[in-house]
Amino acid sequence: MEDKYNPSVAVPAVLAAPSWLDMMHSGTSVGFCDRQLAAHADCELWGRERASKASKASKASKGKATGPESQSRASVLPCRRLSLYPLPRFRLAASYGQPIPPRPTWSRPFFSAAQTARISHSSDPLFAHGQVATKSLTMLHHLMVGTWTPPGAIFTFEFDDETLSLKLIKRTAIPEDEPISWMTFDHAKKNIYGAAMKKWSSFTVKNPTEIIHNGSHIMGHDPLAASSDTNTRAIFVLAAKKAPFNVYGNPFYDHAGWGNVFSVNQEGGLEKCVQNYEYSPKTGIHGMVFDASETYLYSADLRGNKVWTHKKDPETGHLTLVNYVEAPDPGDHPRWVAIHPSGAYLYVLMEAGNRLAVYVIDEQTHCPVFTHITYPLIPPGIPNPNGKMYRSDVVFLSPSGKYLFATSRSNSFSVTGYIAAFALGPAGNIERQICLNPTPTSGGHSNAVSPCFWSDEWLALTDDQEGWLEIYRWKDEFLGRVAHCDVNEPGFGMNAIWYD
Quick one: pLDDT at residue 56? Predict the structure, then answer.
């Protein structure tokens, strides 16, 4: 039977159960953030004070009135009164315990599935007379993934962090000869930019399943780059998070000694190339990252075996070369870079060296300086004939900046790749390597890890050997696979981007 609001229920009786205030005083973990816990405790304290006053009033009136009406006024505090206290992020309806759901446009969860599961309705007075609509507290997250080979398509997935289900909900067809090997969102998640074979492409994102192609632009830095007779390919794209919100692209293989900078229109779509900035004729940049202030750009030059530093003009978004440093070893070949939010540490993933190199950023020159500290991305001692069996892939930080994740791939379908996790200090120094786990397959061209943007809890991993997307949970420094979705499409399994 549904438990309705009962105005005859007294607060002292309700508060007799183990409560938020008792839990907070005893140090019990209840799965809420401090602000939410404090709000509940304050609300409960207010209720106890009211109950105390009611009790005193009852004693004072003893012998003066004995009717049920006077008893109700003196000693009974209806639970409905608690609903007047303003709770953070959601509020209780008049029928206490029934939450009014957040605004429909609200897109981020304030309880994880684990936190929701830890809430005990019987032990919390605020939930004692009704059940929380857990589905309204659980988020359905959406991710998009592209392909390495034609025909081009963008695949949208839905992940439920309560049931741990993962499913493909939409295949959006795009120009067939423009498969997206690397994609990223703009600062507002209203546009997707893609490295699309011989072109740079952009798409308007109206919602997870309504993605509209709004333009493609050729690589114009060298006439040979756009030619179908050359192997030059758009390989990486980076969107600025600050005005003027330019988009930065890297060609790869031959004729890739320049980077392309694009302006965007009012809707965020690619508008025109505003700069072709120079590296060197032998360059092949595969990954870039801005510092937190978006003043300096660091580029991993796989073919040139260097790490480059450029400075961004805050008005135009154009880049000016500052300097470059050679990789520590001729066989390293830097492929990817990540920078700590503190701006003090740069992490450079070496594709051929299969190691993660730690750099500090010089405060005067803003260039990276090698610390001579490296960490393995494949287990030491495993067979690696001529150093050609493995090639490392990407490195990313968790949203909190407390962890770093990196992956490597195998060049044989019969040998697995690996995923590594590292613990970071407050400044960004690597304190320890936590794990180096095998991935399910070689990873193919991919094995790209993608942490979600709101929590350290969820990671996506893609594969194009078999073609799938997986979700992993990072909890108590253990990495566990919780969801898997196969996609039988040519070239499927490039990087995953989290929409919400």
Answer: 53
Q: Is 217 designated active site?
A: no
Q: Is the model's pTM score more than 0.85?
A: no
Question: What is the rounded distance in angstroms from the CA atom of residue 498 to the CA atom of residue 220?
Answer: 30
CA–CA separation, 447 and 437 (whole Å) = 12
Q: What is the CA radius of gyration of the chain?
A: 28
Q: What average pLDDT does the segment 131-135 reach?
A: 36
Residue 454 above 90 pLDDT? yes
**Amino acid code (one letter) for 192:** I
Mean pLDDT, residues 349-363:
98
Q: Is 466 a catalytic residue?
A: no
pLDDT in tens, 76-115: 333 333 333 333 333 333 333 334 334 333 333 333 434 4
The catalytically annotated residue of 333, 355, 409, 445 is 409
Is 89 a residue of the active site? Answer: no
Q: Which of 129, 141, 255, 286 is catalytic?
A: 286
Q: Which of 213, 233, 310, 335 is catalytic?
A: 335
Q: Is 355 marked active-site?
A: no
Give 423-451 pLDDT, tens digit per residue.
Answer: 999 999 999 999 999 999 999 999 999 99
Q: What is the pLDDT of residue 220?
A: 86
Q: Catalytic: which of 162, 178, 351, 470?
A: 351
Residue 398 has pLDDT above 50, yes or no: yes
CA distance 432 to 421: 9
pLDDT at 157: 98
In this structure, are residues 273 and 251 in contact, taking their beta carbons and an 8 Å threshold? no
